[in-house]
């Protein structure tokens, strides 16, 4: 089933009514920066804003916008506090964030499997044109 930003099911051209794996990608999670935030937060359990900014090569404003989208979706929690005299912001993955990240990774694995099958995923893809045939 598609996530909040996904589209509805689409039948495969081979008559299989199963939706293509790409239809289950969640637009909130799948965006490159947000996927990076979720992945790093998963690895670290609790990650400092400055570390994310450095790792993802973003401006503070850009990162703030992406974190806000994830927070609004309930995928991360944001905690503000101090480390010594300096203000800090920490991001933690929520249970919903863990679930969304796992679903996204599973869907990406399905896509990769379709590409890496010995027949090139021919049973699940559109027929090739003569120009595309090896």
Q: What is this entry, summarized?
A:
The protein is α+β, with helices and mostly antiparallel strands. It has 5 helices and 3 strands.
SSE topology sketch:
Blueprint: H1 27-30, H2 32-44, E1 47-48, H3 49-56, H4 60-72, E2 76-83, E3 86-93, H5 95-116
Antiparallel strand pairs: 1-3, 2-3
Overview of this structure, please?
By secondary structure, the protein is of the alpha+beta class. It has five helices and three strands; from the N terminus they run ααβααββα. The chain has a three-stranded antiparallel β-sheet with strand order 1-3-2. It is elongated, with a radius of gyration of 19 Å.
Q: In angstroms, what is the radius of gyration? A: 19 Å
Order of helices and strands: HHEHHEEH
Number of strands: 3
Low-confidence stretches: 1-14
Q: Would you tell me the structural class of the helices and strands? A: alpha+beta
Overall 3D shape: elongated
- Count, helices: 5
User: Widest sheet: strand order?
Assistant: 1-3-2
Main β-sheet, in a few words?
A: 3 strands, antiparallel
Strand content range: 5-15%
Q: Tell me the distance between the termini.
A: 35 Å
């Amino acid at each position: 089933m598609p996530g909040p930003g996904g589209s509805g099911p689409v039948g495969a051209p081979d008559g299989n009514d199963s939706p293509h794996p790409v239809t289950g990608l969640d637009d909130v999670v799948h965006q490159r920066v947000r996927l990076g935030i979720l992945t790093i937060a998963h690895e670290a359990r609790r990650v400092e804003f400055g570390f994310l900014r450095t790792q993802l090569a973003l401006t503070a404003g850009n990162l703030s916008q992406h974190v806000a989208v994830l927070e609004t979706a309930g995928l991360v929690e944001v905690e503000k506090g101090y480390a010594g005299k300096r203000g800090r912001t920490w991001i933690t993955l929520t249970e919903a964030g863990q679930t969304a990240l796992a679903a996204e990774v599973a869907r990406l694995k399905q896509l990769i499997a379709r590409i890496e099958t010995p027949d090139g995923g021919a049973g699940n893809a559109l027929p090739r044109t003569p120009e595309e045939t090896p």
